[in-house]
Prior knowledge:
Elements: H1 2-13, H2 15-18, H3 23-41, H4 51-57, H5 62-78
Amino acid sequence: MVVHSSVLSILNYGISIWGAVNITQVKLVQIIQNFAAKVALGGATKSNHVTPFLEELKWLKINHQYEFEILTLTYSIIKHVLPDWLFPLACVGDTRSAHVNTRQTEHLL
């Protein structure tokens, strides 16, 4: 609980920044998450592979968490479940012609 509240809250808060940086920096953030997973479950050594720890905790790796956040945001924009003031920030739809109604109006281009 301590690891989740102190480390993961910071990583999750900044996921839109962590995920958008280059792969070298993502790896550094992933190292922090790996360490946090091993500490959270305890009894791990440095040589233990982290995947079983992440799976047991049901944590996504940083790059997958970033993808999940972007996809969730995109879905929320398409389905209009976000506040109205966010809609001018992102446009989804057919850009070829604004007044042509097609079945693909909600498809991303």
